[in-house]
Amino acid sequence: MAQLYFKYGVMGSSKTANALMARFNYEERGQKALLVKPRMDTRDGDHQVVSRIGLTYPCIYFDEMQQLTVMELEQNACIIVDEAQFLTREEVMYLVYLVDDLGIPVMCYGLRADFKGDLFPGSEALLVMADKIEEIKTVCWCGRKATFNARFDRSGKVLKEGEQVVLGANDQYIGLCRRHWMTGDLGPDFEVDRR
What we know:
By secondary structure, the chain is α/β, with parallel strands linked by helices. It contains 6 helices and 11 strands. A 6-stranded parallel β-sheet has the order 5-2-6-7-1-8, with helices on both faces. The protein has a 3-stranded antiparallel β-sheet with strand order 10-9-11. Strands 3-4 form a two-stranded antiparallel ribbon.
């Protein structure tokens, strides 16, 4: 029976690497997995999913997937969505349709909350609608579980205000435990890239 999965974690927890490995596992078994991401994710280039450890694979955008016919969609053993936090509630409901009505498993990977500690709309809808929810864990600099995404400026100050979406990676975000996110402590070895 097909299910909707939401696998979430903070920045740097290998969500994208996990998505690409899941896609490879299907391919290795002779099955097709459709790799998808929201169009607003332009950080790694056009029609590409790229992990921090260097794994990369072509993808289609979510709106392009919605234009596929039922027959084209059903040719996939699974649909894998990266950066799922950027989905709208309506887009998540489309994924529910794919699972419930077409019987296609859907695996979504993304952040649960933003740098302010607020849920992303896509993540909120997935937390409500997903059949299975799994945390992809990583650690804070102190060794505790990292559960918050900290955005920082060029001086190393942790920010708690601003636009919800600012695309970036290690140059602007880091995963922290709740304690160090609350205090804005990036750790004793943290160095800011001032380029």
